[in-house]
Design a protein that fits this description.
This protein is α/β, with parallel strands linked by helices. The model has no long low-confidence stretch (mean pLDDT about 90). Strand 1, helix 1 and strand 2 (about 30) form a beta-alpha-beta unit. It has a single domain (about 5-125), classed as Rossmann fold, CATH 3.40.50.10140. The protein has helices at about 15-25, 35, 45-55, 65, 70-80, 115-155; strands spanning about 5, 30, 55-60, 85-90, 105-110. Helix 1 (about 15-25) crosses helix 6 (about 115-155). Strands 2-1-3-4-5 form a five-stranded parallel β-sheet, with helices on both faces. The termini are far apart.
């Protein structure tokens, strides 16, 4: 199950692969269709399943992606499923994001050096990692509580 799903327009595949590289180098499990799909996969079904399973969605929100029917479907699904959504813009203003995306804080890479942009993307990875650790700690606490309760009940 991936931590993160990258939604993008096919025209932005090189940028998507770069973002994938940064996230995975920071120990984030990422679904990116051209790198994650295997020959024979039914890509529509697999994309939907991976989006449903991911906690985070990084939307590479270029002008092309905002016009892409596939990207729009993915973002609509992400919003409907209440995923943690991060629009990343570089060739447009965040205020130009369509519809509901205007209400989501975007990562604006315009005018940044490549090193600064990479650091900003790595910060997303840190947020994903921190959230995963919190979830694991909650699961561990619940298991400890269940074991203590079971031990208490067993004594009586």
């Amino acid at each position: 199950m991936p931590d993160c799903f990258i939604s993008y327009a096919s025209a932005d595949e090189d940028i998507a692969k770069h973002v994938h590289s940064i996230l995975t180098s920071n120990q984030v499990s990422v679904f990116l269709a051209p790198l994650s799909l295997r020959p024979g996969d039914r890509w529509g079904d697999e994309i939907k399943a991976q989006l449903e399973q991911s906690s985070w969605v990084v939307f590479l929100a270029s002008e092309a992606a905002c016009r892409s029917p596939y990207a729009q479907q993915e973002i609509g699904m992400a919003l409907g499923l209440r995923k943690k959504l991060v629009p990343v813009v570089w060739d447009m203003q965040p205020s130009q994001l369509p519809g509901w995306l205007k209400e989501v804080q975007a990562l604006d890479l315009r005018g940044l050096t490549i090193d600064n942009a990479n650091r900003r993307i790595a910060a997303i990875a840190k947020g994903i990692h921190d959230e995963r650790v919190k979830i694991l700690l909650l699961i561990a606490a619940a298991l400890i509580f269940a074991l203590v309760a079971l031990a208490y009940v067993s004594r009586e």
